[in-house]
Amino acid sequence: MPGYLLEIRDLVVKYYTLSGVVRAVDHVALKLKPGEWLSIVGESGCGKSTMAYSIVRLISPPGRIVGGEIVFDGRDLLRMSRKEFRRILGRDIGVVFQDPMTSLDPLRRIGEQIAEVYMTHLGMKKKEALEKAGEVLERVGIPRDKISSYPHQLSGGQRQRVAIAIAVALKPKLLIADEPTTALDVIVQDTIMDLLQSFKKEGTSILFITHDLALAAERSDRIAVMYAGKLVEEGPVEKIVENPLHPYTQGLLKSVPDLWGPKKIESILGYPPDLRSPPPGCRFHPRCRYADDRCRREEPVLRCFGEHCVACHKAGSSEVEG
Ligand SMILES: Nc1ncnc2c1ncn2[C@@H]1O[C@H](COP(=O)(O)OP(=O)(O)OP(=O)(O)O)[C@@H](O)[C@H]1O
Ligand SMILES: [Mg+2]
């Protein structure tokens, strides 16, 4: 029995576009234990989805995984046959996307779409599979009598619940959710988060992707912060929130509006770099108020203080305080 359910090792993913090579995921490593909720947080374009899609082999041209290993349950997903992988996807790994219509067919009844999972993976007959589909619909909070509805007859939140039902129908070991609540209002967002958490309680590990650090902090066991294709900080949620070591994480935390306290929306100046030509040294240096010559020249490696890891030359010095 391996200690980790998922281990991403030295992953490199690039997009070969006409205007240059985008280094979307640049030597990233991550580990997820069974039953854990890990959130990946970062601004738009930092490579979060590219990393998630790599796990489920959804990178297509002009994108290519050029290096690394993705070990799931002791086996490298990137090096198994397509046939073997298809058996794992949908059974052991479920995926939910930001837009539920990415995984739903607008022309087919939702019950049939859920039933198909049971028919494909477990070889069930249609009648039995539809019965199971009704059960899982109820489990995600949709009345069974909606089983004959088409996706357009449901609300956005309900559609996302159906997408989740498909992803969790076979009780996967891992659920990957890429910004599943971004398009929903905050109340619905909360109920979807509760739903994900209930699957975690039943033993499913969650890899949750969001640009919203506050949302991640409410539910995660661990948080990984990405910046410009790199992992810049990673650790248990309380360490990240109470003692952020990277100036970027500190900036993200300060950008979270506090409804009750004094208004303190202090966003990070500037924009993330163009990943076709990222800056030398630390990629965050053009936006970092602590940056010095070394930061402009030398790329920081990830250093770990116990379970809390950070890639910053200055982290831990008295200069950089959260
Ligand atoms: N199909 C593609 N072709 C070319 N470049 C791409 C493609 N998909 C993503 N990229 C580039 O790769 C980088 C990482 O994109 P990615 O979608 O992984 O970021 P993200 O963190 O998920 O962003 P968001 O929060 O906006 O979803 C970006 O620079 C993006 O422009
Ligand atoms: Mg994305």
Topology record:
Layout: E1 6-17, E2 20-32, E3 37-41, H1 48-55, E4 63-72, E5 75-76, H2 82-88, E6 93-96, H3 110-122, H4 126-139, H5 156-168, E7 174-178, H6 186-201, E8 205-210, H7 213-219, E9 222-227, E10 230-236, H8 237-242, H9 247-254, H10 293-297, E11 303-305, E12 308-310
Parallel strand pairs: 3-8, 3-9, 6-7, 7-8
Antiparallel strand pairs: 1-2, 1-4, 4-5, 9-10, 10-12, 11-12
The chain binds adenosine-5'-triphosphate and magnesium ion.
Keywords:
eight-stranded mixed beta sheet, binds magnesium ion, binds adenosine-5'-triphosphate, single chain, Rossmann fold, alpha/beta
How would you summarize what this structure contains?
30% of the residues lie in helices and 24% in strands. The protein has 322 residues and is α/β, with parallel strands linked by helices. It starts with 5 loop residues before the first strand and ends in a 12-residue tail after the last strand.
